[in-house]
Specification:
Blueprint: E1 9-10, E2 15-22, E3 25-37, E4 40-48, E5 54-55, H1 65-82, E6 87-90, H2 95-107, H3 109-113, E7 116-124, E8 127-132, E9 143-148, H4 150-153
Parallel strand pairs: 4-6
Antiparallel strand pairs: 1-2, 2-3, 3-4, 4-5, 6-9, 7-8, 7-9
């Protein structure tokens, strides 16, 4: 089952906003891509606070989780479509959020895996261990990496 995303509002640069509509009313949310180095972009996501900044610790509980993540995924797909060499990485601000992201990636894995490489990253001491994302394997990564598969970019 596919859930339609909310209307996405580009805010200039690499920021994209939308309105979550649910049991707690309308909540402004944003997805922003922060260029860190080379082709890497950190994906920031959360509610827009009164100060205009993204609050990645807020818990809206607006009853529209799947639609919110459908919107975030659409923003990520659009960004990668415009920046085919980009590598997106993201993590949850809490272990619970990392599990939620893993559940969402599992739910939509067949859709994503056709076009995107999805990887799990764990830091083991001083070593970064990167493995393919395998739905349901119980792995708990520190963060995720997503990019367009090389054969599709060619």
């Amino acid at each position: 089952m596919t859930v339609d995303p909310y209307k996405i509002i580009p805010r200039g640069g690499n920021q994209f906003d939308f309105e979550s509509e649910g049991s707690r009313g309308s909540v402004r949310k944003s997805v922003e891509f922060y260029h860190t180095h080379d082709q890497y972009y950190n994906v920031g996501f959360g509610d827009i606070g009164d100060d205009g900044y993204i609050d990645d610790l807020s818990e809206t509980n607006n009853g529209d989780l799947l639609r919110v993540f459908s919107t975030v995924i659409k923003v990520m797909e659009d960004f990668l479509g415009r920046s085919p060499g980009a590598v997106l990485y993201f993590t949850g601000s809490t272990p619970q959020r990392v599990r939620i992201y893993s559940m969402i990636l599992t739910r939509y894995f067949h859709r994503f895996s056709e076009k995107y490489e999805i990887r799990c990253v764990r830091d083991v001491g001083e070593v970064r261990v990167e493995t393919p994302f395998v739905p349901g394997n119980g792995e708990e990564p520190d963060r995720f990496i997503v990019y367009i598969k090389k054969e599709i970019i060619k």
